[in-house]
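Appendix B: complex inputs.
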Amino acid sequence: MINQKNIKKKGRPKTIDLEKIKNVAMSTYWSDGPTNVSLNEICNKAKISKPGFYREFGGEDGLMKSVLLLYKNSLIQQILNILQLEKTFDETLDLLISYVIGNRDKEHIKNGCLLAKFRQSRSKFGKKTQEQIDIILKERHLVFELWIKKVKSKGEFSCSLSSKVVANYIISQLDYAVSGLANGEKNSNIKNILTLALSVLRT
Amino acid sequence: MINQKNIKKKGRPKTIDLEKIKNVAMSTYWSDGPTNVSLNEICNKAKISKPGFYREFGGEDGLMKSVLLLYKNSLIQQILNILQLEKTFDETLDLLISYVIGNRDKEHIKNGCLLAKFRQSRSKFGKKTQEQIDIILKERHLVFELWIKKVKSKGEFSCSLSSKVVANYIISQLDYAVSGLANGEKNSNIKNILTLALSVLRT
DNA sequence: AGATTATAGTACCAATCAGTATCTTATTAT
DNA sequence: ATAATAAGATACTGATTGGTACTATAATCT
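Resulting structure:
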């Protein structure tokens, strides 16, 4: 049962470009907000027919779940990768700050975090979308928590607070910095706030 | 030219209840998000006709500006009043924390800050609404900044950072706490984060 | 009483929405 | 060749949107 793509299947061959649809949907949800985008708009932009869309995704819920997975694998993973570089605790904090403040393209900066936008309107979405939001949030928290535990065991960081709380604190501050930039706050202001907030964790 | 209400005016007397419309609009924008509410919905809930609404408010832009003013006078003012109590710096921080974490009714907690919601979608609104968002943000910042300057001059707080930056920091942390609660984060988590973040300012 | 004025509200408009019935087209199976 | 299968795409449905023409109503003014 090898999942071969050239296997001969009955019926008219598929020409629909799923990746294109997901990319169009992601960028539109990102710039306009997930609650402010219609399926008609996405279908028009992606140049597909609505019945085709419904065949592939079932509806908005399926599309949003797919978009969240795409966002996690392409964007959120970049933050998580910083934690795997085996730098010291303080160096890692610096890397996180500079990634959030300046290392992303302007479009991303002014759009903020797509996951945060989904989270803010969580109750408005379908079941699969809500579940996917929760899964990604949990995953992100877990990776941060494991990283904190590791730097604690290495002796690079000691704190009376639990790793859970510290992970939550760092994620919150990074999230806030991203949304502050998206709200038009000056780069330097956000950098000051983020640096000050994370300074309580440094030795 | 006394602004007498019983002055006899020509034409059919007004029966429309402007306060009711503003209150209906505010609570609906608050719970559903300002970009997810239609004028039809507001008119139906407030039991007024659409032509009547357009006569009074001109359109969505005018209504939103009125709602923002109402929100500022009824809710944002409560936070600002805490700064006028002439308590010490540390006591005032404690009061701010407990106001945000626990002293508001459950509906408000789960809805977050209406001003923050407007701010997040600022570019989607009309000119008057955008201007009003900016005015309220500026006012809020100014009140915090003046308070910081006062406690600095009293010698209750000293810090190498400018009053502007400190004011911005405190507002940001309070904003984040409110939105964290609205996102369903546990009360105790948010209290930990906020307390930790503000601890850098304490002596 | 009749003219004037201003508000209330019905009922409409074109545009857009989510979702689908239906028909066409392109391929494989027999 | 013909049947079976599956995808593409037009074109529709009923509901809702922002916005308004128009009419009915209730008051004052002359």
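Residues 8-13, 38-41, 50-51, 54, 59-60 of chain A lie near DNA strand C (CB under 10 Å from a C1').
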